[in-house]
Design goal:
- This protein has one domain: NAD(P)-binding Rossmann-like Domain (Rossmann fold).
- Helix content is 45%, strand content 15%.
- It has eight helices and seven strands.
- Strand 4, helix 4 and strand 5 form a beta-alpha-beta unit.
- Helix 1 packs parallel to helix 2 and helix 3 runs parallel beside helix 4.
- The chain starts with 7 loop residues before the first strand and ends in a 7-residue tail after the last strand.
- The protein binds nicotinamide-adenine-dinucleotide (NAD).
- The site of nicotinamide-adenine-dinucleotide has 29 residues, from helix 1.
- The site of nicotinamide-adenine-dinucleotide (NAD) has 29 residues, from helix 1.
Length: 249
């Protein structure tokens, strides 16, 4: 695998958890990184870690569900770096953990806006540039929830299912333009996100994992690293599972 020297990567939700691990893995392997997050202090701290690895790195305050934020971020990157080569759509929230009958409409909308619209907006903002340069690698964070449909997580599951299908649609649109578009679907990964689950909600999810453990952010980062590498040039429109054997299809 060639290193990523000279490439610029955006990692949304890069301020902590899986996004932080991805940003640092890409920086470790040579990429300059843009850490985009609503929590700009967290993003700045990760950007500082990436600079410590010898890379150019900046933090951007971005709510991925707001088109104006996303457009401003990409304009700044093109001004400061001149190009963008890798986009990792990772920002996300768990959303409502409740039966469908009890999900507030605004929480449903917010969950879909961040995951699905956010992924759409970020792709839409970088794609014209990637088409012009005839190169780009896009990886989005789906979830096994988006394949299986977790009970009491309908908004999250639907948003992730949407990301899987969006990945396939976009991948076909740009397949001859030097751009690959893939997604990854982890099962439970040890981050702050799952702290929103009660032990009763978490136990059945863990019981489904044949390896009987949670995934690690670094394991997700390793798969993303492969998918943005030259070794994965013929892979597009795919959804790769990291589930300790739980995969459903
Ligand atoms: N942890 C898991 O078990 C798991 C499993 C499957 C998929 N995922 C997905 O992986 C991604 C990362 O999850 P994580 O566990 O690291 O979560 P996390 O909560 O630890 O980190 C999410 C990051 O996204 C940022 N963020 C939230 N809303 C945002 C917005 N509107 N705009 C920009 N940034 C925003 C947060 O500030 C935070 O830094 C999410 O898309 C999540 O759905 C997580």
């Amino acid at each position: 695998m060639k290193d990523l020297a000279g490439q610029v990567a955006i990692v949304t939700g890069g301020g902590r958890g899986i996004g932080r691990a991805i940003a640092l893995r890409l920086a470790q392997d040579g990429a300059d990184v843009v850490v985009a997050d609503v929590n700009v202090a967290a993003a700045e701290s990760v950007a500082a870690e990436a600079r410590g690895l010898g890379r150019k790195a900046i933090a951007c305050h971005v709510d991925v569900s707001r088109k104006s934020d996303v457009q401003a971020m990409v304009e700044r990157i093109l001004r400061d770096f001149g190009h963008v080569d890798i986009l990792v759509n990772n920002a996300g929230i768990l959303g409502p953990t409740a039966p469908v009958a009890e999900i507030p409409e605004e929480e449903w909308d917010r969950t879909l806006d961040i995951h699905l619209k956010g992924t759409f907006l970020c792709c839409q903002a970088v794609i014209p540039h990637m088409i012009r340069q005839r190169y780009g690698k896009i990886v989005s964070m789906a979830s096994v929830a988006g394949k299986e449909g977790n009970p009491n997580q309908a908004a999250y599951s639907v948003a992730k299912a949407g990301i899987i299908c969006f990945t396939k649609s976009l991948a076909k649109e740009v397949a001859t333009m030097g751009i690959t578009v893939n997604c990854v679907s982890p099962t439970v990964v040890e981050t702050d996100l799952i702290k929103a689950l009660t032990p009763e909600q978490l136990a059945p999810l863990l019981a489904k994992i044949p390896m009987a453990r949670m995934g690690k952010p670094e394991e997700v980062a390793a798969l993303v690293r492969f998918l943005v590498s030259d070794e994965a040039d013929f892979i597009t429109g795919q959804c790769y599972d990291l589930s300790g054997g739980r995969s459903v299809y």
